[in-house]
Amino acid sequence: MIPVVDEPDYCNGGDSHMALEYLTIQQVALTGKVLLFNCGLHDIKIDHQTGKRQVTLKCYIANLRQILALTLPLVARFIWITTTPVEDNLHNKSQDKFLRFDADVNNYNAAASRIMTAAGIGQIDLNGFTRVLGGDLYSDHVHYRESVVQLQAAFIAGSLEAILGVDRR
């Protein structure tokens, strides 16, 4: 089945399998661009009934390596952004379809960071930034309040400027 890339659900990217499929289709559009990239939050989902993980860590690692192999020859710059934290109790008490755990976020982020570091990829630690904010961060089980989103956006923008060497003086 060929995905419809303009559909809102598909544009989200989903898990690393879906992201790889999307990037494969969008290769021409990537040429010469800066690609700010993340996947992981959908990968760590565990089916509440079967206990099956959406994407195993081994498959996640393989997908990230394939994503890099595909995109690095095309893009001007690839920048990785870490997956944001999950508050286990808040998330899992509001979900009846799937579970997520922060320990998995940490494991998948660590694996991604090793891959990106080995490939010389710039990284933005949105996870670390978000963790130190404290307080009531979430608007639901996993999405952030608008005030937090604004702080995250400013952090990402500043990090991009630093990585890309943008001088605002």
Measured distance between first and last alpha carbons: 49 Å
Radius of gyration: 16 Å
Number of strands: 5
Mean pLDDT over all positions: 91
- Strands in their spatial order, largest beta sheet: 1-3-5
**Largest β-sheet summary:** 3 strands, parallel
Describe the structure using short key phrases:
two-stranded antiparallel ribbon, 169 residues, three-stranded parallel beta sheet, mainly alpha, 8 helices
Topology:
Layout: H1 8-11, H2 16-25, H3 27-30, E1 34-37, E2 46-47, H4 57-71, E3 77-81, H5 88-93, E4 98-99, H6 102-118, E5 122-124, H7 126-131, H8 146-164
Parallel strand pairs: 1-3, 3-5
Antiparallel strand pairs: 2-4
Helix pairs in contact: 2-4, 4-6
Structural description of this entry:
- The chain has 169 residues and is mainly alpha-helical.
- It contains eight helices and five strands; from the N terminus they run αααββαβαβαβαα.
- A three-stranded parallel β-sheet has the order 1-3-5, with helices on both faces. Strands 2-4 form a two-stranded antiparallel ribbon.
- Helix 2 (16-25) packs parallel to helix 4 (57-71) and helix 4 runs parallel beside helix 6 (102-118).
- The N and C termini lie far apart (49 Å).
